[in-house]
Specification:
By secondary structure, the chain is an alpha+beta fold. The protein contains 11 helices and 7 strands. The longest helix is centred in the N-terminal third of the chain and has 82 residues.
Length: 403
């Protein structure tokens, strides 16, 4: 056997060995790529599900709970109004509104019951149903006394019989809404945690692969990040106006109050809703109503500072968080907001005008926590609406009037 033949055999053997090693290396890279892709897709699906659950489920529950709260609040106001109003025509209108709010409350509750609920939610809803059933005949009795307007003790009966029962229901509804917000926050945190776990795991697998695997890992991570940011934005912002939604507003308000406690600083909120918005919706349709809300949001943002939070709570209700402003500055800002909203809106080829009712409450002057602050701004707003004022700043007199 010649030397050349032996050398040729050695070269061929070496080539086959190198080829085998490259093939094994390539196969390992492919496996790493597949593992990286599989893990990435799995965690992306997990993130999508968890955050979509916030957007599609928890936000729906919170909105329904808020509808129930608002309906109960309106019914309480109607009970007082029916007893006060002497004009039978106006009294009948208020009675129709009272019943309408009852239907709205019942529809929201039934829709909530049809959703997938936790054990705690089901327990609270059961308690709400029992309280509602027990309260209904009492409220009806008081309403009919108010319609009659001859019973001098009607206000005592409202205060002693109907209102305490209504408060029990409202307390359970509030408890339900708080539970739903807590669950939404937990789901959001779990989604963020899943995202962080996915990122770390993908980086670990990517580091064990060659350049191609690292590049694939980079693109997968980038996609996961963008998807998570998009869904998180949807979970925390109003789809129509792009403003902060109720969930983000509550979070920012709580943080602002904590900053105020640490720094000894004040803050204010302006809660507002539009006058005659329902008329615009009913007359020109929801598309025009949506255009109006978008333009209102734009005007509000154009007036406040970049550091201020403007949020849409639902329907035609908006709220602004203002930090480090003196009381006089807040009132001046309210006047600017009034002027901006009173300017005609060009919608559907025609000019339209709407008014605005605002309630102002400040920390720590009017409340020591975020929930009470919102409630007191709400009382001030309804006082403004009742008296045809553009804005009202909260005072203890309002609290006493609504006890």
């Amino acid at each position: 056997m010649s030397h050349a033949f032996i050398s040729s055999m050695k070269i061929q053997t070496t080539a086959r060995s190198i080829s085998l090693r490259i093939s094994i290396g390539f196969f390992m890279v492919v496996l790493l790529m597949l593992a990286l892709t599989f893990v990435g897709l799995k965690h992306m699906a997990q993130i999508n599900f968890q955050i979509k659950n916030i957007v599609e489920n928890n936000n729906v529950k919170i909105e329904l709970g808020q509808v129930m709260q608002n309906a109960l609040h309106d019914r309480a106001l109607s009970m007082h109004s029916i007893a006060v109003i002497k004009d039978k025509f106006l009294q009948d209108e208020e009675y129709i509104h009272f019943n309408k709010m009852g239907v709205r409350y019942l529809k929201a509750r039934k829709k909530l019951e049809s959703l997938t609920l936790t054990e705690q939610e089901e327990s609270i809803l059961s308690e709400i149903k029992v309280l509602t059933r027990d309260t209904h005949p009492i409220v009806e009795q008081v309403i009919h006394l108010g319609m009659d307007s001859t019973d001098p003790l009607v206000f005592d009966k409202i205060s002693e019989l109907a209102i305490p029962k209504q408060r029990l229901i409202a307390g359970q509804v509030k408890k339900l809404v708080l539970l739903q917000r807590k669950q939404a926050t937990m789901a959001l945190n779990e989604g963020q945690s899943s995202y962080e776990n996915a990122r770390n795991l993908m980086l670990l697998l990517g580091g064990a692969a060659i350049l191609l695997a690292v590049l694939i890992g980079f693109f997968v991570i980038r996609h996961v990040t963008k998807q998570a940011e998009l869904l998180e934005h949807q979970a925390l912002h109003d789809e129509l106006t792009g403003l902060a939604n109720r969930l983000l507003f509550q979070d920012r308000l709580k943080k602002a109050v904590l900053r105020g406690q640490r720094q000894g600083a004040s803050l204010s909120i302006i809660l507002m809703d539009l006058d005659n918005f329902k008329r615009v919706n009913d007359t020109f349709g929801h598309n025009v109503g949506d255009e109006l809300l978008i333009e209102v949001a734009r005007r509000l943002k154009s007036i406040v500072r970049k550091v201020d939070t403007v949020a849409r709570l639902g329907g035609d209700e908006f709220v602004i968080i203002l930090e480090l402003l003196e009381k006089e500055q807040v009132l001046k800002l309210a006047e600017k907001l009034e002027s901006a909203i009173n300017e005609p809106f060009l919608l559907a080829g025609r000019e339209m005008t709407v008014g605005i009712s605002m309630g102002i409450a400040s920390y720590p002057e009017h409340a020591q926590d975020s929930t009470t602050l919102v409630n007191r701004a709400d009382l001030a707003m309804y006082e403004a609406k009742r008296n045809n004022l553009s804005y009202v700043s909260y005072s203890e007199k309002l609290k006493n009037n609504n006890v």
